[in-house]
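Researcher: Quick test of sequence recovery. C-alpha cells follow.
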C-alpha cells in the first residue's frame, strides 16, 4: 500500500501537512491580533507571549513549506535543498530571538512560553490530523 504523499490532498500537499499548515496560518493571525491587544493594554507579559506564539507559528509554517517542496524533488535534491533551507530557518529564528531579547523589546520568559505553547499546539494538530488520515486510509 505504497503511495506518493505529494499526490494526496489539494495543491499537491498531504492532508496532514495541509491541515497543520492551515492551523499554523491561523495561529499567525491570532498572534498578530494578540500582539496588538497586548500593546494597546500595555501588558509586556501578553505581548511577549503573543510574539513568541507568532515566531513559532511562522517557524512551523516555513518548516511545512520546506517539507512540501522537498516532497516534489528527487531524493538527492530534496536532501540538499531541505538541509540548506532548514538551517536557514533555524538561523533566522535564532536571530529574531537574539534581537528581541538583546534589545529588551520583550521579556524572555513569556516569549519562550508563547513559542513553546504554539509549537505544542501545532504538533498536536498534526498528530490528530495524521491519525484521522490513517483511519480514512484503513
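Model:
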Amino acid at each position: 500500500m505504497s503511495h506518493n504523499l505529494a499526490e494526496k490532498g489539494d495543491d499537491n500537499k498531504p492532508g496532514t501537512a495541509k491541515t497543520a499548515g492551515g492551523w499554523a496560518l491561523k495561529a499567525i493571525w491570532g498572534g498578530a491580533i494578540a500582539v496588538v491587544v497586548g500593546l494597546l493594554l500595555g501588558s509586556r507579559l501578553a505581548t511577549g507571549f503573543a510574539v513568541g506564539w507568532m515566531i513559532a507559528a511562522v517557524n512551523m509554517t516555513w518548516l511545512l513549506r520546506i517539507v512540501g517542496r522537498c516532497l516534489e524533488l528527487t531524493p538527492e535534491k530534496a536532501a540538499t535543498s531541505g538541509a540548506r533551507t532548514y538551517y536557514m530557518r533555524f538561523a533566522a529564528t535564532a536571530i529574531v530571538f537574539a534581537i528581541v531579547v538583546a534589545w529588551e523589546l520583550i521579556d524572555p520568559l513569556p516569549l519562550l512560553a508563547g513559542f513553546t505553547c504554539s509549537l505544542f499546539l501545532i504538533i498536536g494538530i498534526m498528530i490528530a490530523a495524521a491519525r484521522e488520515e490513517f483511519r480514512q486510509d484503513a
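The chain has a mean pLDDT of 81.
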